[in-house]
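User: Round two. Same drill as before: sequence, then structure, for each protein.

Assistant: Same drill it is. First protein:
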Amino acid sequence: MAWLAMPCPVLLPSAVMTPPALFFVHVMKTAGTSLFWAMRNAVGVDYVRPRPSESPTAYFDIEELQQYDRERLAGARLVAGHFPCYLADEMPMPIEVATVLRHPVERTVSMLKQHRKEQADAATSLEEIYEIPEVFDSLIHNHQVKMFALTQGDGVANYMAPLTIDEARMDIARERLGSVHHLGLNEDLDAFFDRLCIRFGWTEKLPSMRVSAEAVPIDPGFRQRIERDNEADMAFFRYGSEIVRARADC
């Protein structure tokens, strides 16, 4: 099926029209943590849902978000977390959706480096971590497309549930990504955040909160393996990049 990017959305500056709340689909290892803290500071912590301080799993537990009191959700200016995109449709107030994608190889390497740092096991190679089923299946394998291909009918507890990506799932993911109001790429994060600031009237600066900044040489063969294993993510990233380029021409 041939896919076309959604027409450029008409997004008026906040000085012209009060914007709706923002639903941020935080895909792991795309610099989403830096974005979240900047967004949180911009809207004020009292207007963020869910509040991570309320539960250690609040930032990614789907059921916790679904059980949130509708009145409390309706008062939010930012709903953010490691939540699949379909949850945006369940919000009780007008929203715009934002997310950032990253080249799958770079995202995977960053994920592996973070895992090694957290485990304090410098002797373990990135390739060895990559082969750990719990890491690969939950956090790496076509992870970005999964965040947009999951549906309510899947009944998963959180973003770590494995999902087989077939063409039907790709169709779901592409359609959802095309409807995202604010789509950015990790490689151009500052420009993406600048556009959010214009839209929502924010004055925040984007902090850098990199947790895996160590420089590690990656064998070309390993990079090719990541691309082969995550073919759906590669195609999804290319599609997202096309959307970003098309909108830049608006």
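Second protein:
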Amino acid sequence: MKPRYLPLLCLLLVGCAVPPHDVTTALEPINQSFETAFTAGDAAALGAFYTEDAMTLPPNEEIASGRAAIEAHFQAGFAEGLVSLDLETTEALAVGDYAFEVGRFTVSSPAGETLDQGKYVVIWHRVGGNWLIHRDIWNSNQPASAMAPPPPAPADTTAMAPADTTAM
């Protein structure tokens, strides 16, 4: 075995030696506070739930990297009328200072109408004893909106013109 693979092998062996443990109860109060900040329309408070180098991967948008970009993303959502968020964790496991969470979400309007429902995956990083969101991706359960049909194919300019039958 080449020496350059030795650090990777050591990391794999150490990672396999520590079994993952359920952190659902540790994340539940954090998610409740996140929902409260969302309902309050407080983008800055939402940004504080993320690591400094966090990324969100929202559907049909570019990646938002860093707290400022994440706050701007949430602020834009509030301007569009998003006011309520409900999170339901279905699985949350940690190994060391990293955890992943899988769950479902519901976003509602001011009138209480369900605007969207879907699922999410969050990678958490424990920093200074606190769990912070490091990566956040979600997508909708709603069908994709109809895409515009493709433009018609260009005319084939290499085809031969019809034969002139008058000369025969």
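The first strand starts at residue 21 and ends at 22.

User: Perfect.
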